Amino acid sequence: MPTSIHNALSHSMPMRDSTPMSTVTKTERTHPYPRLIAHRGAGTLAPENTLSAFRLGAEFGFTMFECDAKLSKDQVLFLHHDDLLDRTTNGRGTAGNFTWQTLSTLDAGCWHSAHFTGEPLMRLRSLIDFCLANQFFLNIEIKPSPGEAYETGHAVATLLQKFTDAFTPVNPFLLSSFEPEALRAVCDVDPSLPRALLLDAWHDEAYVFLEQNGCSGLITNFEIMTPEIVAHCHQHNRFVMVYTANAPYDIERLLGMGVDSVITDNMSILHEIEVGTNGD
């Protein structure tokens, strides 16, 4: 199958459940992850995917973070969202075309503000150590350079295998991707690693992929989430997350719909809305 989710799965929209949202019954399930997850560390308050961002998110009270991981030219996993370096560093060109030695010299903070000038790019290994030391959860989005989906997924899963002794009582790491091949690679390395399919637009074949590849859950653009999708996933014992909802109204609506976790840029949301514990 093609590596791109947009080519691998079809594009028809799901039928929306006609049941009023207030009458949707939550399934009694155990969901290991916090209800609110900090997007790329601390949303827009710090340079994304940097140590300063994750530290700031933790200061706001978040205990789970989302990050983006890709491979350098010399096979080092590091945090970066875009294919190009241009938007969030002082470098230019395709991120995956450079060695880690070169990438480690770039400034990944000056684009954000003078306060963060000199902030370096971060290795995934360093963020894993940070999360384990502080008992945080981490959603690692496998964000491969073009044509490297399987290779990148394989590398992330292989790295996490080194930390299996720390996976008690629950594995704190969730691997997600828009790329089916990346998730297949994770499964090939270690089927026990929790995996989630990411969707920006709905594809009816998503349910088939989740089943065939043993995914633990589904993460979608919050704008396409429906009670029907939530109910279907919960009936099959899969969690549902959404990205990137920031308005308190939207977050409360989604949690009320039964969404298990919301990935957000809104760092103050923990103090703006009442968030119950998962499994309530």
Keywords:
280 residues, alpha/beta, 8-stranded parallel beta barrel
Fold blueprint:
Elements: H1 5-8, E1 36-39, H2 51-59, E2 64-71, E3 77-79, H3 100-103, H4 124-134, E4 137-142, H5 149-160, E5 173-177, H6 180-189, E6 195-199, H7 206-212, E7 217-221, H8 227-235, E8 239-243, H9 248-257, E9 261-264
Parallel strand pairs: 1-2, 1-9, 2-4, 4-5, 5-6, 6-7, 7-8, 8-9
Antiparallel strand pairs: 2-3
Can you describe what's shown?
This protein has 280 residues and is α/β, with parallel strands linked by helices. The chain has 9 helices and 9 strands. It is globular. The chain starts with a helix and ends in a 16-residue tail after the last strand.
Quickly describe the structure.
The protein is an alpha/beta fold and 280 residues long.
Distance between the termini: 39 Å
Strand content: 15-25%
Query: Helix segment count?
Result: 9
Q: Summarize model confidence as the mean pLDDT.
A: 90
Shape: globular
Question: How many beta-strand elements?
Answer: 9
User: Could you give the order of strands across the largest sheet?
Assistant: 1-2-4-5-6-7-8-9
Radius of gyration: 18 Å
The amount of helix comes to 25-40%
Secondary structural class: alpha/beta
